[in-house]
Amino acid sequence: MSTLAAPNENDLKDLISSHLNLEGPMLPILHALQHAYGYIPALAHGLIAEALNITKAEVHGVISFYHDFREKPAGTHVIKLCRAEACQSVGANALAADTLKKLGLDWHETSADGSITIEPVYCLGLCACAPAAMVDDRLVARVDGAKMDKILKELGA
Amino acid sequence: MKIYVPLDSAAVALGADDLADAIVAAAADRNIEVQVIRNGSRGMAWLEPLVEIETDAGRIGYGNVDASDAAALLDGKLSSLGKVDDLPFLARQTRLTFARCGVIDPLDLTNYQAHGGLVGLRRAAQMDQAAIVDEVTKSGLRGRGGAGFPTGIKWKTVSDATADQKYIVCNADEGDSGTFADRMIMEGDPFSLIEGMAIAGLGVGATKGYVYLRSEYPVAIRVMRAAVEAARKGGVLGADVMGSGRAFDMEIRVGAGAYVCGEETALLNSLEGKRGTVRAKPPLPALEGFMGRPTVVNNVISLASVPVIFEKGADHYASFGVGRSRGTVTLQIAGNVKHGGLFETAFGTTLGEVVNDIAGGTASGRPVKAVQVGGPLGAYMPVSKFDTPMGYEEFDQNGGLIGHAGLVVFDDSADMLQMARFAMEFCAVESCGKCTPCRIGAVRGVETIDRIAQGDGAAIELLTDLCETMKDGSLCALGGFTPFPVMSALTHFPDEFAAQKQAAE
What we know:
The complex is a heterodimer.
Chain A: H1 9-17, H2 26-37, H3 42-52, H4 56-65, E1 77-82, H5 85-88, H6 92-103, E2 116-121, E3 133-135, E4 138-140, H7 145-154
Parallel strand pairs in A: 1-2
Antiparallel strand pairs in A: 1-3, 3-4
Helix pairs in contact in A: 1-3, 3-4
Chain B: E1 2-4, H1 9-12, H2 16-30, E2 35-37, E3 51-55, E4 58-62, H3 70-74, E5 82-83, H4 88-91, H5 109-114, H6 119-125, H7 129-139, H8 151-160, E6 167-172, H9 181-188, H10 190-204, E7 208-213, H11 218-233, E8 249-254, H12 264-271, E9 295-299, H13 300-304, H14 306-312, H15 314-318, E10 321-322, E11 325-326, E12 328-335, E13 341-346, H16 351-358, E14 368-373, E15 380-382, H17 392-397, E16 406-411, H18 416-430, H19 436-453, H20 459-473, H21 477-481, H22 483-492, H23 494-504
Parallel strand pairs in B: 1-2, 6-7, 6-9, 7-8, 12-16
Antiparallel strand pairs in B: 1-3, 3-4, 4-5, 10-11, 12-13, 14-15, 14-16
C-alpha cells in the first residue's frame, strides 16, 4: 500500500489539489493520502483545511470518525477478520480468539516487529461462505484454523 | 473453448483468480485455445468456485474447482454438475433483477445488450418525466434497502421539485451481515445498476449520479469503475443519454468503513465530505439531499430492478409478489446453511421454505435454532415463526423486518444471550454519536446484558425498558432497531437469559 517516502508539503498539496474539482472532495482526498502513505500524515491536516476552507478540527473530526483512516502506519500486513453475525454462526468467534492468541495481540494491535496488524471488520459480503477475512488486499473465505495457520505462516508470523 | 470463472468476491476468496491463471497455463501446455471469461456469480455459494464450460448442450458446471484441478478440467476428467441452468437451486428461481448475473461478461456492453440490456433505457428515453415516474409507481417497486418505501413516490417528489441541479445517489453501503446482493449485482451485472440510475436521472431530471460504495468491497469498486467507463464510451452515460438529448453521468465514491453511512442521511453527509452523522428529517433528502439539492437515494437492488421494469413493463413486474410486496425479492441465504447464496423469487415464500427446503437446513447438520432476518438490526426469528411469508407487512406483523432480505441461519449451538450482547456491542461501535439513546444506550445495553449473564435477573426489566427508550428515542434505525435482535432473543429464548440466573444462584 505505502509507496511514497516521507510526506512533504509539495507532494501533499499536489495530491490534495488534484481532487478539488470533485463535489465533496474530502473522502477521495483522504483515501488518496492513505493509499499513498499508508496513513493520513498529520502534516496534511492543515493543508486539507486550507484547501477546503474548513478548520483543522473539522478535518480531524472527519478522519477520526471513519474506521478506515489511520493516523499512523499499520503493520506491514493487515489481517481483517470478520466478526459479524453470519461469520459468528459458523465459528468466527473461536477463530478470532485462536488467531489473537497465536499472535499474542488484541484487536487493533500490531506485532512488536511491525509485521502484522489485526483488526475486526463487520462484513465483507462473504456471508454464504463464512468465516471471512481480508489479508492485505486479498479476500479469503471459509477460513478455518488450518487456513489461518497457513496465512500466518505466509506472512511470517 | 469458452470457460467461465467467476470474478465475484466469494469465488475469488475461494481461489478463483489462481484458478483462472491455472486454466490459462494448462491450456497453453496443451496447445488448446481457451477463452476464459470472468463472469459474475450464479449465486450458489456452496459450489464456488463454480466453473462453467460452454458446450453445444449448454453451459456445463463444475463445482468447488481448485487451481490444482485445471488440467483435469481441460482433459475432461472432472465430474460435472450437468447443465447449470438445470440445477434445482437455479431452476426454481424467478430471476428478474438477477437474470443476467453470472450469465454474461459483466464488462461487455454488447453481451449485456444481447441479454435484454438497454431495452429499458431506450424506452425510457422516449418517455417524459411524468411517464417514467408513473411506470415505476405502477410496478409497485419498494425500496429494497430495508425501509420498503415506494420508489415511485420518492421519484415523484424529486421530479416535482424545482432546482438547478438534482442528484441520483445509489446507496451501495451494504453493511448488514448476511447480505451480499448489492455486491453480487455490482460485480456480476454492473450495467444494470448504471442503466437503472440513468432511467432514474431521466425520470426526475437529475443529470448527476453517485454510487456510494463501501470500501470493504474492492472487487465491486473495480468492476463498477470499469463499467462506468465502458458505459460512457458506449453512449449510455454522458451529455446525450442513448440519443435522448438529455444528460446523465455518474461517479463511484468509496466509503470508509462506517456502518451508519448506510443510513441515507449519514451517507449524504459522508458523500459531502463530513462526518457520517445522521440528519434529522425533515427536510427529506428528496427535497434537500446531496449538497442541499433534491436527491433520489435508492438502494442498489431497487435501482438495478428498474431496467427490467422498463424492459418488460410495470404490469409484468407487479404480477409477481404478495399483498403490497410486488415483484421479486432477492433473498440472501447465509450463515450456517447447507446451500447458501442468492435466491431471487416472488415475494410470498415462507421463511421455513427458504431455510429448510431451498437452503437445505444447516451446514453443521444440527437443528436450526433461529434465523436473523434483515441484518444486524433484524429480529431473530425462531422456528415457531417459520410460516411467516417473505413480505414487508407479513414480517412486520410477526415482530420482524425483512430489511435487505438477508437471512443468517444459526444452529442450536448459538448462544442467544451472546448474540443479543453482540447487537448492543455492534451498535456501540458503529453509533454516529448524534443521539443519546443510541450512543449511550448501546453501551448501557452491553453492561446490562453482562449483568443478566452474571445472574442479575432484575436487569432483564431494565434491558426491556432501555430497548423501549432506544426504539422510541433514536434518530435512525441503528439505535431504533437494535432492540429488534435484542428483544427477539429475549422474548423467544427466555431460558437462555433465565438459565444464566439459575446457574449463578
